[in-house]
Amino acid sequence: MSTLSPTNGRLTSTTREERLLSFDERYRQQQFTRRNWTLLYGALFLAALVGSVTVSDFSIPGLIKGLPMAWNYILGTFPTLTLENFWADLANWYWGLRFWLRLLVETILMGFVGTVMGGVIALALSFPASRNLVENTGTYFAARRTLEFFRTVPELVFALIFVFAFGLGPFAGVLAIAVHTAGALGKLFAEVNENVDPRPIEGVRASGGNWSMIMRLGVVPQALPNYASYLLLRFEINVRGASALGLVGAGGIGQDLYVAIRQFEYTDISAIMLLLILTTSVIDITCEAIRHRLIGHTLTQVA
User: Fold this and answer.
1) Where are the alpha helices (DSSP H) in the chain?
2) pLDDT band at 142 (very low <50, low <70, confident <90, very high)
3) Where does the pLDDT of residue 255 fall: very low under 50, low under 70, confident under 90, or very high at 90 and above?
4) Which residues cross the membrane (predicted)?
5) Exposed site from 63, 111, 116, 231, fewest CB < 10 Å?
6) What is the pLDDT of residues 9-19, one digit of tens each?
């Protein structure tokens, strides 16, 4: 049996010390590099912040001075309600309730139809926009750029284009919501597709399934709960967005709100805004409950 000589022992000890020193040196180098990158990012963030404040003319004194004026404007839109004539004052405040409720329903339906149409387009484009589902780089690039265009152009700009093309009314608003929704949801759906388990996809492919069968049997069943969750979230956003499209004549309650603002009908402004706030709150709470049930059901199935 061989034994280590003193010389070999010293060499071994020296080698260990060299390794420790090398490890310590690499660690210090990594810390130094990380610190330099952190300082660089911090400097870039600070420069961007200073530049943004300069370009936007942001002013703390101006903000402090303007906030009370904004609050006074909001308070000025509310009527004076007295206990003696409370119901009469309330009826006078909401004199156009039936007309506003009809416009409110129109706004909700605009958001719903636009969300469904945009969701269908987003689902169709999300598969070629997923890097793990297509091998053709040109197809992937075209799908991604199309989705970027859809979500980059603001809804109001699309609404103006469609109002010019199809005339005033909710149809232009629905198309504007659908196009913008397709771009936003398409990106989210594509990211969901890229994170699915590849084993079902390989199983369908090994069984001789074509590309459409792989999408339908290997991808959609895994991603469907996330699709529904994002779709509900987008519906909440679209109902709020539909109320603003009326400013350009694209239908909904926003059109009457714009008229009230231009004619300085302050009590009508507060009445319509309270209806919008109440409606969007109910929709948000309902959609949130549905999303939590979907997520909880999915987690239960996984467990």
Assistant:
1) 6-56, 60-76, 86-93, 97-126, 137-152, 155-166, 170-194, 198-206, 211-214, 220-245, 253-262, 266-302
2) very high
3) confident
4) 38-64, 70-87, 99-125, 156-179
5) 63
6) 444 556 666 66
